[in-house]
Amino acid sequence: MVRKQHRHHLALTLTLGMLVPGAVNAEGQDNLPLYKMMHSLEFVQDSVVAGDSSAGEMQRFLLATIDERLRNADKSVFDDGRNVDAALIYAMSGGNPETLEYLMSRDVNGNFDNRVADVLRKYLNGKGLLVVNTLADIAKEYRDKPIGPYLSLVAGNVMSGKNAKAALKLYDWARLMAPGTIIEESALRRSLALCADAGMVPTGLDYAQRYTRRFLHSPYASQFADLFVQLVVDHDSDIKQQDIIDILSFMDPPRQREIYLRMARRAAIAGKSDLAALAAGRAQAIPTTDGGDAFGALANFYGGVAGISTPELKSAINDVDQMPAGELNARDRALRDAAKAVAQEIMRTPDPASLGQGNVPNLSNQQNTEHDAAVTNQAGGQSPATAGVEQGATPSAAPAPEGGRQEADSSFNAFVTTSRSKLDAIDGLLKQESH
């Protein structure tokens, strides 16, 4: 821990030296080793996820500065393996992908591991799935090296689209090798996303608790909140109320209220009225420092939306109506309109005509059929058309079908033929899509 604090202190001093000319007298910006510049970038990025909003501008400055140094560096600079690692870490830390291509094209001394460079180039160009297994193997090989945590994180990103459990193991290695850093923050957040999608509830809750204890002030915490709400709402039957309360207890009241409100809204849309009511009630119970009741009104509104589908319909409609449309954003105004439309349909008095049984017209064909059936019964089971034939009469002696039935048969055959051709055409399209 002391070594880490010293490293961060040194990195901050070097960063200030680059930002304020003359602050570093022993080593000017042009003579500063690349690996020390990367330490500065790592420190700044860790500060960003720790909640230092002022570090964002410094991060952009350092990325641009390091990019320029890498492109202008003499090839002999990369005889030092620490500078090679710095270049690779830069590429995996939001740097310019084309710079790695440039460095590889000039690597006549073989300072870069071609395997690492190749998989990174494919990853940065969106073709990581082509080398996913190779990337995972290389990450394991370099696990104890400075680039190890970064390679594990990158390999986890690629593996997540193929094997969620294998990706979680890579993310675990990444965060365990780099605790308290932007790598751990990213690994925890992406692990929670995988658990939410795959329904791995206990594991997801564990990641969520770790995140709330370590990275509440990260600029990416809002994304974490959405993922946590997704996990809870999609799998509410597998989650205890106390689990939610315990995880959110690490947050300050405003953040707790925000997540409970998001939960109430998503649960209301999903038709999970009990969870929506619970979340809305928890949001309302959190006191506000300014004495206003805006959040309570919003929680009441979400609870009302959820109650539209319950026996407490009238009370729910009242809660929805009490929220002025002008105080809602566009998405919630649409939600309010939809809830009111559903409520109106539920409350609408049925049309008396719709309660009666419909009358089917008595077609001429139906009359003929019924007449034939009656004659058949009277003749001992033979219809006029078949009786003559069975008695040895010639086909011409049989009575001709009536015109109405002939037309009906013709129309029916045409309908079947047309329908069958349409079905064949649809089957053909489906077969084309499947190939």
TrEMBL record:
Keyword Signal attached: yes
Chain residue ranges for the region called Disordered: 349-418
Keyword field contains Signal: yes
Origin superkingdom: Bacteria
Key words of the record: Signal
Skewed-composition ranges (Polar residues): 356-368, 375-385, 409-418
Signal peptide start and end residues: 1-26
The name this protein goes by in its record: Chemotaxis protein
